[in-house]
Amino acid sequence: MASTSPTEIALLRDLVAIPSISGEELPAAECVEATARRLGLDVVRDETSVRVEVGDVTAGPTLAFATHLDVVPPGDGWTRDPFTPVIEGDLLYGRGSGDAKASVAAMLTALADLAGRPLRGRAVGLFTYGEETRHATMPDAIPRVGQLDAAIVGEPTNLRLAVAQRGLMMVDLVAHGTQRHAGYASGEDFSNAVVALAREIVKLDGIVAERVHPILGVTTVTPTMLEAGVSRNVTPPSARAVLDIRSTPAWTHEELEAALRDRLDVEVVVTSTRLVPCETPADSPLRAAVERAMPGIEAYGSPTCSDWCYLRSVDAVKIGPGTSQRSHTPDEAVNLSEVTAARRFYARVAEEYLR
Questions:
Q1: In Å, how far from its chain's centre is CA 354?
Q2: pTM for the structure as a whole
Q3: Which CATH architecture best describes the domain 167-275?
Q4: Residue 43, helix vs strand vs coil
Q5: CATH for 8-165+277-353?
Q6: Is the separation of the CB atoms in 318 and 165 below 8 Å?
Q7: What is the DSSP track for 268-280?
Q8: Which residue ranges of the chain lie beneath pLDDT 50?
Q9: Cα–Cα distance measured from residue 179 to residue 234, given in angstroms and rounded to the nearest whole number
Q10: Percent of the chain with pLDDT over 90
Q11: Among candidates 269, 312, 256, 267, which has minimal Cα distance to 66?
């Protein structure tokens, strides 16, 4: 039986005060481990995660509360110290307050609330590192949990229920041309790489719009960076555009690559397909448990990526306290009332799912 739990707000303040920028999560991981031990919970900390569990794996399914301990660098524009948590009214300010330490605090205290209650199965807190980078440890942490049947991904959704999530595919478009003095930029044997690339860029709007996902809509293909040029008076031998492709489950990333190669007349270089789109199964027992725990909860499709992409093989949803639009911004903040509501909500969902 766990001892009396600290408030989720006190734990959140402690976590925000730790500058756990990606790659520097150890002090935050030690804080979570120490808190779990103080509460009498079973906890393991290693190079992949901090894992906290309650219940009995032999008695039924396993539900994971999955979120991350790392934060992005604070950047410029703050009017407060980013790692000194300040409460003003219902808001707590600080880097990572919403993304995603509010979820960490609510999930860990919810696990403490569940300790000793009759559960038909097991609830596991899975607090990982590097989510904000290419070096997420979630894929390595998941096998260490053992049996895993369902997962709630803790990210700022204002406690709305994300039942689908866009993926991210990164692609370079490369056009090749003739390098020569700009005074001789003509002739049948001449090609300007910038012009060739521009012709393809104007094709991108709606280029894969024929498949419409019922929740997320169409896949978007957005050029975000351009690169070309040797000198102001030299025509470039090549020109490159970086595409940010926000995919939906209507396309696989392999299908998107094939469509771009077929529909564009430049070189298509895929640089990342790691963040695949996700959606909750239509017959999801977890979604049913969520809706029993919070009748009338709003379901929607999330435009942002998360560690959900590593949990696609299980029944999963994304929901947590905080406003996604505040993530990564100066003066990031979270509504404390949502953090408290999230603690109660996570515990209720676990009881509904593991009953």
A1: 26
A2: 0.91
A3: 2-Layer Sandwich (3.30)
A4: strand
A5: 3.40.630.10
A6: yes
A7: EEEEEEEE--EE-
A8: 1-3
A9: 7
A10: 98
A11: 312
